[in-house]
UniProtKB/TrEMBL annotation:
This is 3-oxoacyl-[acyl-carrier-protein] synthase 2. It comes from Thermohalobacter berrensis. It catalyses: (9Z)-hexadecenoyl-[ACP] + malonyl-[ACP] + H(+) = 3-oxo-(11Z)-octadecenoyl-[ACP] + holo-[ACP] + CO2; a fatty acyl-[ACP] + malonyl-[ACP] + H(+) = a 3-oxoacyl-[ACP] + holo-[ACP] + CO2. Belongs to the thiolase-like superfamily. Beta-ketoacyl-ACP synthases family. PROSITE patterns: KS3_1, KS3_2. SUPFAM superfamilies: Thiolase-like. Pathway: Lipid metabolism; fatty acid biosynthesis. The active site is at C163 (for beta-ketoacyl synthase activity).
């Protein structure tokens, strides 16, 4: 028999707040984390805005010496993991370390370290490149550092599927527990790619919003005047736990994970397939895995990037899967507030649906001003709502045609 899997802890480092409470309050109030980039001079860039994490001090969570040996994305991941473990009230004597694992997602890993060390190589030569360069840069080191610091000796892996990375990570962690290979999994994602090179690359693709005059209003998923996504950063970590293990220690349970689907468009390196067929199949597989009907779903946290193609084709995919029910369920994109955390987006949005189920609240899609005839669903415009949520879905769609969907439900014994 498949084991039941529940969410018992949430840790957040985000552009709208650090810590679960600050993050959730900001989303409920519809606050934007987008502003002008502060880390480097953007004078020569066409996009000058992003959703940076503010007021984060790694020394609040990590020894100063160790923090210097971590890229920013790893610092975020370790901090969020420590918060999630604390939120879950996990005690060392309640954990079998060999059944305690980590699956993390990251799209680009330590790109900030890569840029800095490459500059050092060019200016000062190969002997001045840091011996910590490789372990700071490689994407799996966030998961590695978490396992070392928290003593997680079970399954450990990193998923790199672009913007689907951490939804795939949550799905993989769910399946690991479901088949009995672990009792507890730390999962989610981390990203810290607001750097000159990454900004330049996305700008050259013309993927980013250039609404520099109105940073707070630049991320506008499903709005007719959307002009590209806004880069974000941070980490969101969920503690997934086998149900009996959670009940035996009296854990608080936010939600139950019940479905996971993943597919590939097999179509284009960056563009989604025009009818959203790949995304639709991922949603259908997740519903089948959860053994529920489309009409059971109350809320979808959409991928909703604020790009012309994604929002149109994801809307088509939702309508193809949910038929008439598509117009009855609630769909929102919290990227309107947080920006797009790339490989960490699914972790953040998985946390959102868990909290929505726990509190019966659906956060809004802010900056929704002008209706697009191609995007005609209920996107919970501008103001969050209290709404009974029994089943919720989160979609993540990545470059390369990667599609991942998870389904959670309100916990009932």
């Amino acid at each position: 028999m498949k084991k039941r899997v529940v969410v018992t802890g949430i840790g957040i480092v985000s552009p709208v707040g650090i810590g679960k409470e600050n993050f959730w309050t900001a989303l409920k109030e519809g606050k934007s984390g987008v502003d002008y980039i502060t880390r480097f001079d953007t004078e020569e860039f066409t996009t000058k805005i992003a959703a940076e994490v503010k007021e984060f001090d790694p020394r609040d969570y990590i020894d100063k010496k160790e923090a210097k040996r971590m890229d920013r994305f790893t610092q975020y991941a370790v901090a969020a993991s420590k918060m999630a473990v604390e939120d879950a009230d996990l005690k060392a004597d309640e954990i079998n370390q060999e059944k305690f694992g980590v699956v993390l997602g990251s799209g680009v890993g330590g790109i900030e370290t890569l840029e800095k060390q490459h500059k050092r190589l060019l200016k000062k030569g190969p002997k001045r490149v840091s011996p910590f360069f490789i372990p700071m840069m490689i994407s799996n080191l966030a998961a590695g550092q978490i396992s070392i610091i928290l003593g997680a000796k079970g399954p450990n892996e990193t998923v790199v599927t672009a913007c689907a990375s951490s939804t795939n990570a949550i799905g993989d962690a769910f399946k690991i527990i479901q088949r009995g290979d672990a009792d507890i999994m730390i999962t989610g994602g981390a990203e810290a790619s607001i750097t000159p090179l990454a900004l330049a690359g996305f700008s050259s693709m013309k993927a980013l919003s250039t609404n520099n005059e109105n940073p707070k209003g630049a991320s506008r998923p499903f709005d007719k005047n959307r002009d590209g996504f806004v880069m974000g950063e941070g980490s969101a970590i969920l503690i997934l736990e086998e149900l009996e293990h959670a009940l035996n220690r009296g854990a608080r349970i936010y939600a139950e994970v019940v479905g996971y689907g993943m597919t590939s468009d097999a179509y284009h390196i960056t563009a989604p397939v025009e009818d959203g067929e790949g995304a639709a199949r991922a949603m259908k597989l997740a519903l089948e895995d959860a053994n529920i009907n489309p009409t059971d779903v109350d809320y979808i946290n959409a991928h909703g990037t604020s790009t012309p193609y994604n929002d149109k084709f994801e809307t088509i995919a939702i309508k193809n899967v949910f038929k008439e029910h598509a117009y009855k369920l609630k769909v929102s994109s919290t990227k309107s507030m947080t920006g797009h955390l790339l490989g960490a987006a699914g972790g953040l949005e998985g946390s959102v649906i868990a909290l929505s189920l726990y509190e019966d609240f659906i956060p809004p899609t802010i900056n929704y001003e002008t209706k697009d005839e191609d995007c005609d669903l209920d996107y919970v415009p501008n103001k969050g709502i209290e709404h009974t949520v029994e089943y919720a879905m989160s979609n993540s769609l990545g470059f390369g045609g990667h599609n991942a969907t998870i389904v959670m439900k309100k916990f009932k014994e």
